[in-house]
Amino acid sequence: MFEDSALATVLLAMFAGAIRVSTPFLFVSLGETLTEKSGRINLGLEGTLVFGAMSGYAISYHTGSPWLGVLVAGLCGSCFGALHGYLCKLPKVNDIAIGIALMLFGTGLAFFFGKAYIQPQAPRLPSISFGFWTDMPALRQALEINPLFLLGIVLAFVLWWGLKNTRWGLTVRTTGDSAPAALALGINVNQVRLLSTMVGGFFAGVGGSFLSLYYPGSWTEGLSSGQGLMAVALVIFARWNPLYCFLAALLFGAAGALGPALQSIGISRGYHFFNAAPYIMTLLIMIASTSPKRSLKGAPGELSITK
Amino acid sequence: MVDVTKADRMAVGQGSALADTLDRFRRSSEFVIMPILALIVSGLLFSIFLLALGKSPADFFSLVWRGGFGTSFSWQNTLVRSSPLIFTALCVAIPARLGLVIIGGEGALVLGGFAAAAIAIPMIPWAPSFLLLPVMALAAIIAGGIWIGLVGALRHYRGVNETIASLLLFYIAVSILNFFVEGALRDPSDPNKPSTMPIGRDNMIGAIPGTDVHWGLVFGIVLATLLYLLMNRTTFGFAARITGGNLRAAQAQGLPVGKLMVISCAIAGACAGLAGFFEVAAIHGKANASLIAGYGFTGILVSFLARHNPLVIVPVAIFLGGIAASGGLIQRRMDLPDATVLVLQGLIFVVLLVSETFYGRLPFFRSKGDL
Amino acid sequence: MSKFELNRRSLLKSSAAGLLGLSAAGLPRLASAAGLTAGIVYVGPRDDFGWNQAHAVAAAALKEVPGVTVVEEENVPETIAVQKSMESMINLDGAELIFATSFGYYKPFVLDLAAKYPDVQFRHAAPLWTDADPKNAGSYFGYLDQAHYIDGVAAGLSTTTNKLGFVAAKPIGTVLRNINSFLLGAKKVNPDATVQVIFTGEWSMPVREAEAANALVDAGCDVLTCHVDGPKVVIETAESRGIKCCGHNASQAPLAPKGFITGAEYKWATIYKMFANDLAEGKTLPNFTGGGFDVDFVQSTPYGAGASEAAIAAADAARADVKAGKPIFTGPINKQDGTPLLAAGASLDNYDPSLDQTDYLIEGVVGSIT
């Protein structure tokens, strides 16, 4: 039978894991794609993610509305984005360094104010059941899908289409590829970057609220374990293409489910390496897919990390 | 920037040697006064934060002073915490001279500590400590050096972003440590904290006489000085700085950019590896998951605050060590959470980076000739 | 007798519940404990619904004892930082009694400080103290596997698939012992029960804990329990998947209003208050204090909505048995690889020192430790 096959169990678990775990990666990497397309890198999204997780949880707890929590998490994220965007426009201020500083600052603030919310239980986001057609419990569970995941897919398409075909997409891309060219076209470079970083921060905040309000669904200090930073890595991996961001996030989520899934069918030897699978996989793909000779396809020309 | 050029001198005119010196002094003082100003600004901002929470900034800063620097115990507390930070900050500072941002020094620390403990296992029964410790240190240097050297090589030869690669390698380093420590190299006599075999009390590095600060601090200061000389007084350092300033120009001049990157990263990794060695040889006596204590990540902060200058890293590490040392006292006396220290560190970091923008723009620090 | 003191070596010879005393050296500075300051160091956040919270609850109880001041520090890693935190409590706060609550604090940090500050009493929360260690140091421990055994009994009667799930942090002695006892409890009432275990590799890693919990449910487990620092995520995941769960370390009952059966909890307050009272009366503190239900060092969380009548009755009976000293480990028991641990008729005392050295899982546990 299908259910009896160990391989099927693992594949199903990875499929379910991809859907459950990928959403924060998806949101943060979409936000970072937009920011990087405008020519800046924001490593501070890890701090934004953690702060988003905390603030979303806190608001959901106080108001009883998890969706309001998601919104506030996004707004907090855009505040961090605004801070990053504003500071980086000052001469001689390095965007990578500011990002690292904001990562520390955002995490610190989240832990500081988050102490009061480790204990309480906040209302969580609902899910939509797409598994009504099957009577396999595991598959049915895998198809319990959070609306944010669907929203993320839509967003990936919108961003992909928008960057390519709309006027603001062109503006963002021009700013990211060559600031002098953008200036010549009368584009306010700093403002475009500020807005792109703010929108990127909004997405990262929403991604964080998914962690605390849906999966795993509570606020603790160890909640993120570097997911915001990994999402920034996924952007390079996804070649600044929002659709690839979606695939990369799915792949990363699936790889993360590999360790527990293998143990559930009795393979535990070397489980540390299976747990590190997402990182090993990302590194290998980055090594295989990059080249020192030509700059990466899709890479914004102004981006400090690709120079 | 500090150098007084010929044109400047001429512009100053035929002023006395004293005026010249004063002028020069005033302009160099920018590099001391600006960070201090930035610290004061961070302190003020943090005071506002505390006041908003109804806590007293005066209490806070006097506790930081008392817990970090006020008594001889506090000083030792501070120094012992700053020792690993010097090494891990060097791991960020050296590649930074080439324009590389390495954030995975923690991985090199973990692997360095693990390599040191692992190579010690077969030697413990027979080797005297004067042989054992150098071999352990060498193993740590090699392991850490290879780990971050790999990051440099990937960057140059494959174009893989070094910031991300070093972070990924940190996670992988942790899984390597856990795999061996919970598996093949586990000390069977300790079922509850998976660790390698202890190297033994007698083999461990002791404290500087009269204190309980281990010798790692002294080694850290010596290493920082040596690396300062390397980066500022040798052809290697000069070439590295040119590469950091403009990669394409360096390539056009025929500098061996790839070699420079790999060697700088390897040196950086060796520094972090040594941090791991001292954790094993002076603190834990064995390798286990306690090696993952975040020193590598705090080192990033230290290096940036020191503007990647190896000599400045030492006082900055001591300063941050002091803040960390006072963290406990702040928790106990002011009923503030442990994250308070993180908030303060983050704030200082942001303000110091922003202060970069004011260098050369405040009239006081400018030569009269520039005005 | 409300408490007992035991020496692990003499326990080998003593078949009774180990009521052999071993006293510490004198406490010159503490002839009167008026104004005793106790310092407590935690490895994680104090309100993690788990290990640290269990200690923090006891610290709060200790604060109620007249004349006792408690100073606390949380999120202190198992590095030189903990040595300095404890030393800072001694030097700057005048602490005379230190509770070091994380396993890795003992060697070398507590031992070093005990030698350096002979007038200060150090107590560490794991059964590690031996005769060779300083006399002003000591261990206290609650044998939580007894409560996991009770959880197992209740869980064994709550499962319909006969598959119980266990999310574990690392394959270390105390964790393995809890898993084994949990299975023994389940098997006592349900011989077909098995326990499937997944190790996350970290003490606190919420996303992976949730993944592990889901993987166990997908594998057919219908009761979950765990041994990680903060069980919040596992319990909430079990509840949201509509299955039952048993708690660990502290009370998680409010997290699972529908499926919570019962939980294995420490009751450190018993020990903390006992130490404070001993010092107040000028008595010497024991170097080794350990126990389970018999001395009120561990407890079961009050039954939740997931506990059936049958499960409650069986668990209550089993708890009375354990309290009376009836052994949990009674043969025949094989290790996972088939080698015998105990022959039929043989048994191990609940405080048998060999159990502190558990490095195996027993037959019936699915999932390996290598």
UniProtKB/TrEMBL annotation, chain A:
Q: Which InterPro entries match?
A: ABC_transp_permease (IPR001851)
Q: Which UniProt keywords apply?
A: Cell membrane, Membrane, Transmembrane, Transmembrane helix
Q: Where in the cell is it found?
A: Cell membrane
Cellular-component GO terms for this entry: plasma membrane
Q: Where are the transmembrane segments?
A: 6-31, 43-61, 67-87, 96-118, 145-163, 194-216, 245-265, 271-288
Could you name the domain of life of the organism this protein comes from? Bacteria
GO-annotated molecular function:
transmembrane transporter activity
- How does the record classify its membrane topology? Multi-pass membrane protein
Major place of localization?
membrane
Q: Which CDD domains does this one have?
A: TM_PBP1_transp_TpRbsC_like (cd06580)
Q: PANTHER family, per this entry?
A: ABC TRANSPORTER PERMEASE PROTEIN, SUGAR ABC TRANSPORTER INTEGRAL MEMBRANE PROTEIN-RELATED
Q: What is this protein called?
A: ABC transporter permease
Q: Which organism is it from?
A: Roseibium aggregatum
From TrEMBL, chain B:
Q: Does the keyword Transmembrane apply?
A: yes
Offer a single GO CC term for the protein. Answer: plasma membrane
Tagged with keyword Nucleotide-binding:
no
Q: How does it sit in the membrane?
A: Multi-pass membrane protein
Q: Which Pfam families match?
A: BPD_transp_2
Chief place of localization: membrane
MF GO annotations: transmembrane transporter activity
Query: Which parts of the chain span the membrane according to its record?
Result: 31-53, 73-93, 100-124, 130-151, 163-181, 213-231, 260-283, 289-306, 311-330, 342-359
Q: Which residues form a coiled coil?
A: none
Q: Which UniProt keywords apply?
A: Cell membrane, Membrane, Transmembrane, Transmembrane helix
Subcellular location as annotated: Cell membrane
Identification of the protein by name: ABC transporter permease
Q: Which organism is it from?
A: Roseibium aggregatum
Automatic annotation (TrEMBL), chain C:
What are the GO cellular component annotations? plasma membrane
* Name used for this protein in its record: BMP family ABC transporter substrate-binding protein
Q: Which residues form the signal peptide?
A: 1-33
Pfam families reported for this sequence: Bmp
Q: Which organism is it from?
A: Roseibium aggregatum
Keyword annotations: Signal
The record, for Gene3D superfamilies, names: 3.40.50.2300
Report domain ABC transporter substrate-binding protein PnrA-like positions: 38-286
Q: Which PANTHER family match?
A: ABC TRANSPORTER SUBSTRATE-BINDING PROTEIN (PTHR43208)
Claim: Signal is one of the keywords in the record: yes
